[in-house]
Specification:
- The chain is an alpha+beta fold.
- The protein has one domain (about 1-145).
- It contains four helices and five strands.
- The chain has helices at about 20-35, 70-90, 115-125, 140-145; strands at about 1-10, 40-45, 55-65, 100, 105-110.
- A five-stranded antiparallel beta sheet has the order 2-3-1-4-5, covered by helices on one side.
- The longest helix is centred in the middle third of the chain and has 21 residues, at about 70-90.
- Residues about 135-145 have low confidence and may be disordered.
Length: about 140
């Protein structure tokens, strides 16, 4: 049985910088990692806890299908990968947090962790081409050796 997972990504940073490169990379990576994705424009509304002001933000919803019937470890890896992707989106989009709907239906607001930020910056400093996320399937890797 397949279930949907969703990541919401703004069209631009809070400073107005276009995130088209992130959208393209995100879509490409989700297709590679999950076999496909759907990208739909949407509007996000949220209230600032500081000012009380309601903000309106144009976004793209990236939706993937996750095999909910997978054995425990594979499903856990897929969920961990979605969280990792959302962390990178938050980092690159310069967002306080990113909306992530897990295949279970649960919703999380994911912040860029210091580990993710440090890994991303270290890779950039080395001049490595950085995709916002990379999936490593250790089981498949071990089986191929």
């Amino acid at each position: 049985m397949l279930r949907e997972a969703k990541i919401l990504c703004p069209l631009a940073t809070n400073e107005g910088e276009s995130l088209t490169h992130l959208h393209d990379t995100l879509a490409e990576g989700l297709v590679d990692d999950f076999g496909g994705c759907t990208m739909t424009p949407c509007l996000g509304f949220w209230r600032s806890p500081d000012s009380g002001k309601v903000h309106r933000e144009p976004m793209l919803a990236f939706v993937v299908a996750v095999d909910w019937a997978q054995a425990g470890a594979k499903l856990e890896r897929a969920v961990a990968n979605l969280r990792f992707i959302a962390e990178h989106v938050a980092r690159i989009a310069k967002q306080e947090c990113v909306y992530l709907q897990l295949p279970s239906g649960a919703v999380e607001f994911v912040k860029a962790s210091n580990v993710t930020v440090a890994a991303h910056e270290a890779a950039q400093a080395r001049g490595a081409p950085v995709r916002p996320f990379v999936v490593v399937d250790n089981d498949a890797k071990a089986a191929s050796h």
